[in-house]
Automatic annotation (TrEMBL):
Coiled coil: none
Protein's name according to its UniProt entry: Glucose-1-phosphate adenylyltransferase
SUPFAM superfamilies: Nucleotide-diphospho-sugar transferases, Trimeric LpxA-like enzymes
Database matches in Pfam families: Hexapep_GlmU (PF24894), NTP_transferase (PF00483)
Enzyme class: transferase
Gene coding for it: glgC
HAMAP family assigned: GlgC (MF_00624)
NCBIfam families, sorted: glgC, PRK00725.1, PRK00844.1
């Protein structure tokens, strides 16, 4: 559980959350052909970006900006529909900031730091005292107020949100080498031999892509970086290493601010950046006690709620019974004489008679034809599964027709099905 600091006004009300949501997420393969990774569906009714935005809102931050770039239409549409309730007359704001060549007519966002630098004038117009820089493509629940409090108390130039991960797995992360007081001694990007934490030889501190700055300090750092011709305009590669070397950078442990309900035993954070990780995180939600509690009303995940009819299950005959077991079924779904097991159905999915769905993640408005059998797969939104199609039984056949991972998960898109008929 989490406890808010008492006896003082929340620092979050003087902060702005700035979400970096321009990345493609190419490791999700065709799932990001039409949308940026932060706009990918997750958990039955939300998008990945809703977690960072909900954390900001639930933490008390009422000024939020989102920088977009790659194939941003789906994301911008979602933000406009689901996050339009913040009101300027209540000293609240919500800005969507697409790459729009505002600094140079030949420049899009060149990196994560540049995505903030190009919008300095917008930030200054709101005059926040602190900036919380967030990645928009991770799934977790976190109270940023606690990180802001540590930043103020420590007198740091930057506070970096960090995860404890097994040291040998940290080769895929930016790793913080810290001293006993959590001051960052060095920042190493995907090191071959990650440094261990003090007193924990088998554990390393990995960056979450979350940074807290005092706004004036951040703007000065961004302007210095923009003047360097050899900079990659990136927080992890340029801004943070420079502060580590010349200023004071402090690590904030996610365990100190993660939000857990009584049903969550461990701090939950996932980078669902591969198809296997995406499938596993969604399927985990169908467990009796999942690692992530989406039913926690004390820390709701806000999103755009479509107006749909309730989910409906029809027919009750042998081999034609509408039933779902250990599954999440969203509004507007119709399970017509079909069996759903350990699966997640997003909004508006229709599964027709005599079909069987097992350990599948089915995105919005998919139609599963009569007699189909789907297992161990992710089906993209709007796909029309033909009658009698079998997915998940024959690895060789699935590999020829669809995108199949080494762990045996098939990604099915409409273009893949269309190619089968040409």
């Amino acid at each position: 559980m989490y406890d808010r600091p008492t006896g003082q006004a929340p620092i979050s009300r003087t902060a702005m959350a700035y979400v970096l949501a321009g990345g493609r997420g190419s490791r999700l393969l065709e799932l990001t052909d039409r949308r940026a990774k932060p706009a990918v569906y997750f958990g039955g009714k939300t998008r990945i970006i809703d977690f960072a935005l909900s954390n900001a809102l639930n933490s008390g931050i009422r000024r939020i900006a989102v920088a977009t770039q790659y194939k941003a239409h789906s994301l911008i549409r979602h933000l406009g529909r689901g996050w339009n309730f913040l009101r300027p007359e209540r000293n609240e704001s919500f800005d969507v900031l697409p790459a729009s060549q505002r600094v140079d007519e030949n420049m899009w966002y060149l990196g994560t730091a540049d995505a903030v630098y190009q919008n300095i004038d917008i930030i200054e117009s709101y005059d926040p005292k602190y900036m919380v820089i967030l990645a928009g493509d991770h799934v977790y629940k976190m109270d940023y107020e606690k990180m802001l409090q540590q930043h103020v108390d420590s007198g740091a130039d930057v506070t970096v949100g960090c995860l404890e991960v097994p040291r040998l797995e940290a080769v895929a992360f930016g790793v913080m080498h810290v001293d006993a007081s959590n001051r960052i001694i060095s920042f190493l990007e995907k090191p071959k031999d990650p440094p261990a934490m003090p007193g924990k030889p088998d554990v390393a501190l990995a960056s979450m892509g979350i940074y807290v700055f005092e706004t004036k300090f951040l703007i000065e750092a961004l302007k210095r970086d923009a003047a360097k011709p050899d900079s990659q305009r990136d927080f992890g590669k340029d801004i943070i290493p420079e502060i580590v070397a010349q200023g004071k950078a402090v690590a904030h442990h996610f365990s100190q601010s993660c939000v857990r309900s009584t049903h969550e035993n461990e701090a939950y954070w996932r980078d669902v950046g591969t198809l296997d990780a995406y499938w596993e995180a969604n399927i985990d939600l169908t467990a009796v006690v999942p690692s992530l509690d989406l039913f926690d009303q004390d820390w709701p995940i806000w999103t755009y709620n479509e107006l749909t009819a309730p989910a409906k299950f029809v027919h009750d005959a042998d081999n034609r019974r509408g039933v779902a077991i250990s599954s999440l079924v969203s509004g507007g779904c119709l399970v017509s004489g079909a069996g759903i097991h350990n699966s997640l159905l997003f909004t508006g999915v229709r599964v027709n008679s005599y079909s069987h769905v097992d350990r599948a993640v089915i995105l919005p408005y998919v139609n599963v034809g009569r007699g189909a059998r789907l297992r161990n797969c992710v089906v993209d939104s709007g796909v029309q599964i033909p009658d009698g199609m079998v997915i998940g039984d024959d690895p060789e056949l699935d590999g020829r027709r669809f995108r199949r991972t080494e762990k045996g998960i098939s990604l099915v898109t409409q273009s893949m099905l269309d190619r089968m008929n040409t």
